[in-house]
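Incident log, support desk, overnight shift.

02:14 A customer reports that sequence design results differ from what the structure should imply. Their input is reproduced verbatim below. On-call engineer (initials T.W.) acknowledged and began investigating.
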């Protein structure tokens, strides 16, 4: 991933973002062309602290033919994104751009056993069911055993050993406070993604949005009065 220094995220922040998103696009190269599939996943860690991305694929997914080797796969995890018009800046001579959050995880992938797949499915559903609290979580125990086993035969569990972590959060960090605030304010009137980018910008540089301290201004005027 090309990542200018202003936007580069450290390993911990990138992994945290990927875990919280839990959905991305898995990509691999078959020797002739890239193959990709969007999918949910969760992160776990090996005994030595190495991150692992656990996921599964439909049994007929062409990606499966590439699993189990030494070749590196790529999991692209994206967050909100938004277009920025040059008209929104305070400064002149700006150009259009796009703000976004993106993390790439890469490494080799191996197949899981049936027992590992069962554990993965329960862990994965528990992760996303927790987003729906206070709803009582769904569990695989609500399914009849025969139906569950039939559906499990249609998928294959896998895990990626994450060898490289790259993160880029482009939020106009390199712009002046005046331009930064102007863009965040403009995006706050946009669609859901634009609003989320605006919130992230405010969280990243809260001091730029602080209200003026009118008490300090008043005291200064009083001290400077004849």
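02:41 Re-run completed on a clean worker. Output:
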């Amino acid at each position: 991933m090309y990542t200018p220094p202003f936007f580069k995220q450290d390993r911990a922040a990138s992994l945290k973002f990927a875990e919280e998103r839990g959905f991305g696009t898995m990509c691999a190269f078959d020797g002739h062309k890239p193959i990709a599939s969007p999918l949910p996943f969760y992160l776990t860690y090996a005994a030595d602290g190495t991150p692992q991305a656990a996921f599964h694929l439909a049994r007929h997914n062409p990606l499966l033919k590439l699993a189990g080797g030494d070749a590196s796969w790529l999991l692209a995890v994206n967050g909100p994104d938004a277009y920025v018009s040059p008209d929104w800046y305070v400064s002149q001579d700006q150009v259009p751009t796009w703000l976004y959050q993106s993390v790439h995880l890469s490494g080799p992938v191996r197949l899981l056993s049936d027992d590992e797949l069962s554990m993965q499915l329960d862990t994965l559903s528990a992760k996303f069911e927790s987003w729906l609290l206070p709803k009582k979580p769904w569990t695989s125990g609500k399914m009849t055993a025969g139906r569950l086993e039939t559906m499990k035969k249609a998928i294959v569990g896998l895990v990626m050993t994450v060898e490289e972590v790259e993160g880029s959060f482009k939020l106009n960090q390199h712009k002046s406070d005046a331009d930064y605030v102007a863009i965040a304010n403009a995006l706050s009137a946009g669609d859901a993604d634009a609003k989320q980018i605006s919130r992230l910008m405010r969280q990243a540089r809260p001091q730029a949005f602080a209200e003026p301290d009118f008490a300090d201004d008043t005291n200064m005027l009083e001290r400077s009065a004849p």
